Every structure is written in C-alpha cells, then in structure tokens.
Amino acid sequence: MTRFAIVDLETTGNAAVKGDRIIEIGIVVMAESGEVIEKFSSLVYPERDIPPFIRSLTGIEEEDVLEAPLFSEIVEDIYPLFQHAYIVAHNIEFDLGFLNDELRRCGYQPLHNPVIDTVEFARILLPTSPTFKLGQLAERLDMGHDHPHRALSDAQVTADLLFFLLKELQSLPERTLTQLLKIENKLKSDFREFFQKYINEKRYGKNGEENIVIKHGLAVRKPFREQTKKQIELPLFQEWKKQVYEGENGLKSVVANFEKRHGQQKMSEEVHRAFLENKHAVIEAGAGTGKSVAYLLSAVYQAMNTGERVVITTHTTSLQKQLLEEEIHKVERMFPRPIRAVLYKGKSHYISLSHFYYELERSYQDNYDIALTKAMILVWLTYTRTGDVDEIQLPSNGRQFWHKVSAEQSSKTVQLGYVDDSFFQWAQEKAMQADLVITNHALFCMDIMKEESLLPDYRHVIIDEAHHLENVASRYFGVRMDYRELQRYLTQFGESFQKGLYKEWSFPDGFSTNLLKGQQTIDEAKDELSNLSRFIYQNVKKESRLGRGKSDIGRTQLLLKDEEMPSFMSAAKEMSHRFLALIQQLVFEMEKVEDQLKMILTVKEDHNIPILIARLNNQIELCRKIRAQLIHYFDFDRKEEVKWLEIEGEGASNSIYLFSEPFDIAHLLQQRLFNAKASVIMTSATLATSGSFKYIRQTVGLENDTRTEEVLIPSPYSYDKQVQVMVPNDFPDIKKDQEAFIEALSEAIYSVAEVTKGRMLVLFTSYDMLKKTYSLLREFIDPNEFMIFAQGVSSGSRDRLKKNFQAFDQAILLGTSSFWEGVDIPGEDLSCLMMVRLPFQPPEQPVQSMRNERMKKEGKNSFMDKSLPHAIIRFKQGFGRLIRSNTDRGIVFICDQRLMEARYGKYFLSSLPEVPVLYSSTRQLINKIENWL
After folding, report:
1. Do 743 and 705 reside in the same domain of the chain?
2. I need a labelling partner for 773 at 20 to 30 A (CA). Which of 231, 300, 367, 876 fits?
3. What's the order of all strands across the beta sheet hosting 787-790?
4. Domain assignment present for 553
5. 3-state DSSP assignment of residue 691
6. Is 291 annotated as a binding residue?
C-alpha cells in the first residue's frame, strides 16, 4: 500500500544555514485512497527568538513555545512516521531541508525517501491557476483551511490537495501520461510509479477519452467547430431597444438592481445610427454610463441583422476580459441565438502542436524549467479551447521556450502536404464565423499598418479606450528595438547552426563548414551589437550630465538631432552598417542550410524536416525585419519622424533602447482607417476637453471629416455629493526648491493618511520624485501604522501592487504613468486620491520637444493645441480612479497651485463634473476632510 507522510513546518525564518529553527511541526500520514492513517502535531522550542514578522504570520508567540519540547524530545515519535512513505510538502526543499537539519543535529540519518512537491504537482495539473500558494489554492478548490500558517492545518490541506491532484492525474489521457513519463526524471518529485500505474489502468481498462483527439502526436481537446453563421431578421431597432431597456424580459431580467439610464440608451442609439448610416462617431461616456453594454447591444444587433462581423478593440486586457466574461453574457439573452464572440490575438500567442511535439521528442537536454514547462503544456492541451499562452502560468524560462513552439514558427509554405492545423488556424476559423471579434489596440494598429491583413475582413469597428489610439498607432508606425531583444534573437538564430539538430540525416561535404560559418557570423554579430550598444550608451550617459530628460520609468533619454551631433550620428550609422552586414551574411548562411534540407526532403519523407525549414523561414524573415528597421532608424535624412535613445541609468553598459515615431500619425490614421472603413466608433470616458472634441479629432485624423458625429454623455454619478476636490495653497514652489516641495508633499501624504486611515492612491508624473518621496516616507512612517507600496520600487506588476494595497487595512500606494488610468479600486478600499502635479508631459521628453519645435515653426501654439488638452485627458483619467460606483465617496487632493492660479487652470476644472473645489491651507483642508468623511 502506498503511504504518504505529508509534513508542514513553521520556522523562525527561511534559512536553516543562518540558524533558523522549527517552531511547529504537523504531519498527516495518508493512504492513496485518501484515508488518514495518523496525525502528529507539536510546537517546538527553537532555542532562539521568534522574529515579529513570524509571530504576526503564524500567531505563535514566544510564551507559546517556552514550555514546548525540544526537537530532540519528539524525534522518536516523528521518525517512524516517514518510514516506507513518500514525503510530501508544499515546497519540499524548504520542509525537508529543515527536517533533515534537525535530524542530523539529533544524530539521526537524514531522510532520503521518494518525495512529492505539491507546488510542482499543482503547477503541472493546474497550469492555468493564477497562484500556487497553498491558502489561495485551497480557496479556489473549496478546501476548508481553518488555520493558515499553522503546521497541522497546512499539512491537512496539503494532504487534501495531494489527493485531488492524484485524481486529476488519473483522469489524464494515456498519451499525455506516456509523454509525462518521458520527462519525469527532470522533475523534483518522484512521479514515475503513479504515471506507470495510471498508464496501465488506461491501457487495460476504460480510458474515458471521448473529448480527446490525437493531433500531431499529442492528446488535445476536440476542437469545437462553429456552425456556419446565419443572418437573423430582428425587429426594427427602436422597437427592439425599447424591449431591451424597458421590457420585463429585457436587461432588468439579467442585471441585478438594473437602473434605467438615459445615457446608456442614447449611446446604443448613436452607435446603431452610425452603423446604419456608415458614419464615424466620437462618443465620450462618463463613468457609470454602462457604455460597454450599450455598444455591445448595437454591435450584436448589427452583426446578427446583417451577417457582418463587428470588430471591438480595447487597450487593456482587463476590459477584454470584462467584455467576454461578464458583459456579453448580460446582453446574450436579448438575442434569439447565442452571441459568437472571439478574442483574437497575434500568432505568437497560440501554440503550434507540431513544433511542440518536435521539442517534446528532444527532452533529454532539458533543464528543470523547460521540463516543468513541457509538463504544464501537456496537461493544458487536454482542456484548452484556445491554445492561448495567456491562459497558462509558465515558469520564468518558460516564455523563452514558448518562442520555439508558438504558431509564429509555422511556415507559410507547405512542404510534403504538411499542414500545421492547430490553434491559430482554429482561431481564424472561429473569427470568420464570429459576430464580434475582440482584439487589442496593438494588433488592431498592426493590422491597419500592414498591407497584409492580420484580422478577418470588417467594415465596422468600435474602439474602446480610444484616447490611447494615437499613442499605440505611433508606436506601431515607428520603430521600437532594444539590445536585450536583439541579443535574444541572435541566440535563437544560433540554435539553427547546432550540429546536433542534423545528426539523423546525411549531408554532402561542406555542410559542417556551413554550420560553423553560421555560428561564427552570429558570434561576430553579437560582438558588433555590443560595440554599437556600448558606444550609444556612453554617449547618452555623457549627454545626460547636461541634464537631459528622463522617461516616466526613470530611463535617461536622448533626442537624436543630426545637426547637433554629426560625429556621433555618423559613427553610430557606420557601426550599425557593420552589424547589418553580418545580419545579411546570416540570411545567406541560413538559406544555404534551408536548401540542403529541401534537397533531403525530395528523397526522404520526414516530418521533422518541414519543422526545421519553417523555423529557418521564420528566422530569415526576422533577420530581414531587423535589417529593414535598423536601416530605417539610422537613415537620418527622414525628417517626418522623431527618433530618440534611452538607457537604463543603473543598467548594464550596453542596455540601450531605440525608438522612433512619425510626427503626423493623424494623416496615416485618416488614410488607413477612417477612409477605409464604413464606420468607426471611438469611445472612452475621457475624449473631450472643456466639452470639445477638437483635440481628439485632430490627433487621429478626423479634424475635417464631415461624416463624424460627436456625442457627449455625462456620468450619472452625483459627483457634487460624492467628491470634494481640495487644493492646498501653502506648498513650496517646486521650481525654486524641489526638496522642500517633496518634504511638504510627504508630510501632507502622512497627515491626510492619518485622517483617511490610509486607503490612499498618490499619482506622480515623475518617477524620480516618486522614488524620493517613497524614501522620505519610509524614514518617518512606522510600517505597523501604514504599509507603503511604490511602483517601480516595491516588487511586482501594477495588478500585484494593487492587490497588495487592497490586502492591508491601512496602506498608501504611490504610482506613476500607468496608475493614472485603468486601475479599479472600488468602495472603501480607496478614500483619497492625491495628484502631485498636473499631468503635463515634461517638455524635454523627445516626442514632446520635437512636436513643440515643429508646431512653433508652423505658427501653432503647441501648449494650447497639444500639451494642455493631452494633460486634461490624463487629469480626467486620474480623477476617474476615485469614484467607481454611485456609493463611493472620497477626496481628490491636488498639490498643484497652478490649478487655481494659472490662466489655464480653468480648462482643467471645466473638464470635470460639477464638484465642490476648496482652496486653502493644508491644515484647514485636513480638518475639512476629517469633518466630511
């Protein structure tokens, strides 16, 4: 009978080597059937102090362990529990390391039993889980966990998790289990016995694999083929809309506490009218309008009534998720058949089954991360409907491996009747049959930029979060490259010249020399790239001493102006040509390898050869793209673009970034988008400035378009009752004394936080100022009073920082650029929003400074026409972080007196809803906050 000894320890810290000791041990002995055979639990006297963090985490105090036994006093009870058993723990290296350390101290032999790590096991069997922490897994799987961070409770939950995972393993297809067995020896856990046992059960019993199909040697979920889309005749729009918004079977039957909102109905009407009349529309819909439901109703009506698909593009993945998982389900009941909506992404998101199988057959050289990645993908393929990498939580090096197996590697040409009919092709098929194709601004802009379409044909598009369109389009009509990415590509290209890849075929004399030449060319290209990057880095560093600009994430920036730095530009161009000559040589060497493979394919049928040819094709295409982009970038005669360089101030001496953007994106969008499509709807909560759409129309190419409707829908929230805007009049002048300003700001943050009990988001326009403020706050704020999180300083993504902020009762979150929008912290989690400065782009930033210069030459006022409206839209976005429902209340505290004293301050205020604005001393404002809250 297979036995498991599931162990959990609480310790004084993470490192036994630094003298940390066990303070509690819990053991659950379990049979494979799930029956608990025995339990053991004891506190342990650690012979050292328990740190405050551990006391807080576990609830175990010094006095709790004073009377507890030493480990040596309980070792005789513990040691037999592990005999003839698998040792199981959630992070086995930690628990087994501490356990064996104590056993050695007591004169016992360390344990060398077979082991199972439930972290690793969960990663393999639950590859789409957003987290693998024990408490959060228990919550997701609905396993009771009464006392987290107490040893016996954790051990019991680990036992429940193990039993669940073994059942999941048992249900996998035989093919998947057989392939897992091939990589088992690279994993931490000893799974072999279970893999073999479950393979035999499948082989000689019922295998229950009705929903599984074998494709390219892999067990995958049967693809769901869409029926051919049929046009449906719906009632006239006005009649149908009235039933949806007012009828008993309308939205009130599917939306809890549904409120009839005039603005939402108006938006549905305007979108429908634009579609019907082949017009464009610019629609600002204030927070709480319900704009996504409003435009979805009209978009689906259009798609079903005409049989034409509608494209919806968003800037953030969170909005895509909201549309697919929440809003579409709400509106689906309003239609006679289910809505066919697909999320459509670029090829690099989808797995290629043939390329993955090829890598799976070559697992003998894998390191741990790659073996774990393969195991996770094998299990994921048995249930994914999309094959989209964003579903799966890959380990750190897993993303690197993904590049080898994504659909991007699939060749456009078909050799040997070989077709890689996997997830990207299925996504295309689904999109062709869809009512709604949902995508992101990046892919959407790439589609309108390229001659060859990336999206299925469409005439009507809704651009949500449309205030981002100009920036994203500028990025995709320009150049973005960096040293690390180019080095990664060169390393990837080098794999094509490894002898081991070709050992199963016989090639003519000279092939080995060809491979050697290719590898030498790559080494030389890496050296040239390093020389170019170091040269650029040193020059940008030198220029930065003259007070050049910083990006919003702290990188040093240098604007490229041919006439101001001719020797630098000339040398950089010369060095880039040397690098590009080697890239061209690389293409030549790759083509020679490709020709040899094609020759073999004419005499030998082998499905591995098309895989290698497809990869070479992809790499040759990538080399050509790199060449074209760098030639374009170092062509300094092109005056229609702004070009700049960035370096990491603290980074390696060749960590450089190259950027270029066109000056006039409006003209390109006008030609490629608005003139080419029947109807384009642009919508956002922030498109107008002071009630006018002039700025947004100018930036995207709609300035003189006569078929564009303008619609301004105010928010239904009672801002006058829900918000107080406060501006202190006693802050030091930042231009005269930045240090004094930061001190006053830090004191204000702390004083306001005392009144609001934290729950405070502070928005900066300068990363440098954020860092200085964070350092100062840390000096005088006790972490037991307020937790402080800062973007770019505290570790983690924007979402992780937001979750950490919400997890603490009293916390302050400091954020820069990306926190000004798209962050939802509803309800009491956020009571105060502080804006440090009005969000003008720094005038020394490259794009801004060149645009200012150019507009000046054209006789335009760059401040009034560009800087001010751009800042107002950012300001409105920042303001919108505070009120996310009609029950939210809070303070907007703006530490910038220009709002009240500068001539242009009125434009910011007139862009806000009607709200009370108080202008007084910091102390008086804090008293008002206390009274109002």
Report:
1. no
2. 876
3. 787-790, 811-815, 760-763, 832-835, 890-894, 723-728, 917-920
4. yes
5. coil
6. yes
User: Binding site annotation covers 500?
Assistant: no
Cβ(806)–Cβ(884) below 8 Å: no
Which residues, other chains included, contact 345 with Cβ-Cβ below 8 Å and sequence gap of 6+? 388, 390, 427, 439, 440, 443
Assess whether pLDDT exceeds 70 at residue 544: no
In a domain, 294, yes or no: yes
Residue 292 assigned to a binding site: yes
Using CA atoms, how far apart are residues 180 and 71, in angstroms rounded to an integer?
39
Q: What is the CATH number of the domain that holds 13?
A: 3.30.420.10
What the block records as the tokens of 334 is: 């309003």
Predicted confidence at residue 800, as pLDDT, reads 76
Which amino acid appears at position 420 of this protein?
D
Ramachandran angles phi, psi of 338, nearest 5°: -60, 150
The tens digit of pLDDT for each residue in 688-731 reads: 998 899 999 999 999 988 889 999 999 998 998 999 999 999 99
555-568 mean pLDDT: 82
For residue 23, give the H/E element and its range. strand 22-31
For residue 890, pLDDT beyond 70:
yes
**Residue 354 corresponds to which tokens in the numbers above?**
């043939």
Between the CA of residue 240 and those of 231, 251, 596, what are the distances in Å?
17, 12, 64
CB count within 10 Å of CB 456 equals 18
738-756 and 922-932 are packed helices; what angle lies between their axes, rounded to 10 degrees?
20
Q: Spell out a b/e string for 722-751, using b for 16 or more CB atoms within 10 Å of the CB, else e.
A: bbbbbbbeebeebeeeeeebbebbbebbbe
285 is in an annotated binding site: yes
455 falls in which pLDDT band (50, 70, 90)?
very high
What pLDDT, on the 0 to 100 scale, is given for residue 416? 46
Same domain, 161 and 244: no
Convert 264-291 into a string of H (helix), E (strand) and C (coil): HHHHHHHHHHHHHCCCEEEEEECCCCCH
Q: What mean pLDDT is reported for the chain?
A: 89
β-pairing, 218-221 with 310-314? unpaired
Query: pLDDT per residue over 362-382, tens digit each?
Result: 888 889 999 999 999 999 999
pLDDT band (50, 70, 90) for residue 601:
confident
- pTM above 0.85? yes
290 is in an annotated binding site: yes
- Specify the number of domains making up the chain: 4
SS3 124: helix
Question: What is d(CA 284, CA 291) in angstroms, rounded to the nearest whole number?
Answer: 9
Domain, as residue range, for 289: 237-340+677-713
Same domain for 725 and 744, yes or no, is yes
Residue count of the chain, please give it: 933
According to the annotation, is 131 in a ligand binding site? no
**Contacts for 667 with CB less than 8 Å, ≥ 6 apart:** 701
pLDDT reported for residue 290: 92
Minimal CA–CA distance to 699: which of 282, 316, 311, 315?
Answer: 282
